[in-house]
Design goal:
- This protein has 639 residues and is an alpha/beta fold.
- It has 24 helices and 20 strands.
- α1 runs antiparallel to α2 (70-87) and α8 packs antiparallel against α9.
- The chain is globular, with a radius of gyration of 27 Å.
Length: 639
């Protein structure tokens, strides 16, 4: 029987929020005939075999059931057996009633979401294709043989993470003190857990369903807990010994994207050479994030882990100056991954910034020199312009370097600031003065050419711009001057890949033009990702770009083709929050307290660059991991 296109996802037909599921968005790449998941079904191909799809879905559900509660452990086995019987001509009409009964009972009584999300897709599919199921139960319908399927296990937190780290799995292992197993799982998708566990902006925590009850899980802190235990020698990750391959890959930049790419290529047995312009690893993570947030020893440890998998890092080597892409090809490198970051400053476009005044310095340069132990600016009073994390790092670093009057100037209100809320809070605690709705119009200097003040204009908020934030509008005649000894613009970062890449793969903004899924450019052997492709972005997205770039490079070396597969499409689908809009009710009412690591007092921490935040103790980590609701979701697709 042929059916029209069926869409019951989220319980709504033709829901416009599900446009992400439209196959037209992936022309010429891959297609899915149907998907079945936690909130319903969507069928594009009119000839899909619904009975076989149900059997595949229930088999995956059975395999993923953790077995810690009886209804799901036993019920999914029974359901998978009944569905398999239908596909093999051994079904009975009463089996259909039994399948529906079990689906409802498991969803009502299971403790985690593997079971709790089972009823809707099963009932939707069996109702939408009722005649097919009845025919299969009578033995009058031949079930399609040889149909291919792919599946994905996700969760709201996993889907929110750009690298799709399996959060519930490693939290479950922390809860049971299986630290090594937890770390092995983390490193499948995050090669720098010590770094991410300190400075990630936590997109996973914003989607944590525990936050709908009380407080989101401390996912970042638990990742750091594992990394700290590893550095202390208290856990032993599984050794990796992949078979060695003959190909070599060159990587531009030893920042997060480049290190990540080298790590995952190393896991495949592919040797890499990383060409890094600085004298040490980490890129902006090392030279842009102060050590009170991210100690350099952590980055060194994680870079050493990449080298242990066969990477060679050549420091003080700038591609385009010391070596060219043509040189790399001549030396036998079969592919190049560009992870050059966005190391340059952007202009404020105000009078006086190009005059070479003493004590005027872009934020990225200020942080890089401070990271090398310098005090790059002098005086007591400093004005920092910007509202992002770089600006927060600049004001907090200035306090530690002895500036007593530290001022942050931002042209919108605090509600529009892109900086991490925790960074804003800690900057206030450390005595930073916040000046909202002000924009610089002139850097002023004395007769000796030293900065003496920053002339600003008051602003008011108008209509939203492309970013969704209300646009600042100048208030005429509101000029005033903030007296200061130094000015640090920290309003953004610029890319400079045009200095060494062919023009065909460089955008008008000097960013790398690469496929967002594969990282491949129009020059087939050149790949890239991270800040050099997106502009300044969060660190976990750079690590994800390196991971996916490595995956594509392996495909390219094996077949010459990087076409994304069905699993890539399914990961892309789950990145849309709309797919989680009608999640089932939360199972546990009540309130639990989130475990928080201790931090140095503000008056203590501004005296040095010692790390501000301590890690969680084993007891805290165990207790925090126990708060996880294990919100797994299963998605099965017919190909």
């Amino acid at each position: 029987m042929r059916h029209p296109e069926i869409d019951t996802w989220n319980g709504k037909a033709r829901d416009p929020d599900l446009s992400v599921l439209d196959m037209e968005k992936w022309p010429g790449r891959t297609t899915l005939r149907a998907i079945m998941g936690w909130n319903g079904i969507k069928v594009w191909d009119k000839t899909v075999d619904a009975v076989a799809l149900l059997a595949a879905y229930l088999e995956k559900t059975k395999d993923e059931s953790c077995g810690q509660c009886t209804p799901c452990r036993l019920g999914t086995v029974q359901m998978a057996g009944l569905a398999k019987g239908l596909t093999q001509g051994r079904g009975k009409t009463e089996d259909l009633t039994r399948l529906k009964f079990l689906a409802v009972q498991i969803s009502r009584t299971a403790r985690c979401d593997i079971g709790r999300t089972l009823a809707r897709p099963v009932l939707d599919l069996m109702e939408s294709f009722s005649k097919d199921f009845e025919a299969a139960a009578r033995g009058t319908k031949r079930v399609e043989e040889g149909q291919a399927y792919t599946s994905l296990v996700t969760a709201p937190c996993v889907a929110a993470c750009p690298s799709h780290v399996d959060v519930p799995f490693y939290l479950e292992n922390i809860r049971m003190d299986r630290w090594s197993e937890a770390m092995d799982k983390v490193r499948e998708d995050c090669p720098m857990p010590g770094t991410i566990g300190r400075v990630c902006v936590r997109p996973c925590e914003t989607r944590c369903r525990r936050g709908n009850l009380d407080e989101a899980l401390a996912i970042k802190g638990l990742k750091r807990f594992l990394a700290d235990r590893e550095m202390e020698g208290k856990l032993t990750p599984k050794p990796l010994a992949p078979p060695k391959r003959p190909e070599r890959v060159a990587i531009v930049g030893a920042g997060p994207a480049g290190l990540s790419c080298a790590y995952y290529l190393g896991r495949q047995g592919i040797k890499t050479t990383i060409f890094e312009a600085q004298e040490g690893p980490g890129g902006m993570a090392a030279y842009g994030i102060p050590s009170y947030r991210l100690p350099r020893s952590v980055i060194a440890h994680e870079a050493a882990g990449v080298e242990a998998l066969g990477a060679v890092i050549r420091y003080n080597t700038r591609v385009g100056r010391d070596i060219t892409l043509e040189d790399l090809a001549g030396q036998g490198y079969k592919a190049v991954f560009v992870g050059a970051g966005a190391p340059g400053p952007t202009r404020m476009n105000c009078k006086g910034e190009d005059q070479g005044y003493e004590n005027f310095m872009p934020g990225v340069d200020f942080l890089a020199r401070a990271a090398r132990g310098e005090k790059p600016l002098n005086g007591d009073r400093v004005a920092v312009v910007g509202g992002g994390n770089v600006a927060m790092d600049c004001v907090r670093t200035a306090r530690r370097l002895g500036f007593t009057d530290v001022n942050l100037i931002y042209r919108r209100t605090e509600a529009e600031m892109p900086a991490d809320a925790l960074e804003i809070k800690e900057a206030r605690e450390e005595g930073v003065n916040f000046h909202m709705l002000m924009a610089p119009i002139e850097v002023q200097a004395d007769a000796d050419g030293k900065v003496s003040g920053l002339k600003c204009l008051r602003m008011e908020l108008g209509e939203p711009d492309k970013s969704g934030r209300r646009r600042p509008v100048p208030i005429e005649g509101s000029e005033f001057v903030i007296a200061c000894d130094a000015v640090i613009p920290a309003i953004g970062q610029a890319c400079a890949v045009d200095q060494f890449l062919p023009q065909a793969v460089v955008s008008e903004w000097n960013t790398l033009v690469a496929d967002k899924t594969t990282g491949q450019t129009q020059v087939p052997h050149i790949f890239g990702g991270g800040d050099c492709a997106t502009g300044p972005d969060i660190l976990i997205r750079a690590l994800a770009a390196g991971k996916y770039g490595a995956k594509s490079i392996v495909r390219y070396l094996d077949t010459g083709d990087c076409t994304p597969g069905p699993e890539d499409l399914m990961e892309a689908l789950t990145g849309n929050p709309a797919l989680f809009e009608t999640d089932p009710p939360l199972p546990y009412p009540g309130v639990t307290r989130r475990e928080e690591a201790s931090v140095l007092a503000p008056e203590t921490r501004i005296q040095s660059f010692d790390e501000v935040e301590a890690g969680l103790s084993p007891a805290q980590a165990r207790q925090e991991a126990n708060r996880c609701l294990r919100c797994y979701r299963i998605l099965v697709a017919a190909l």
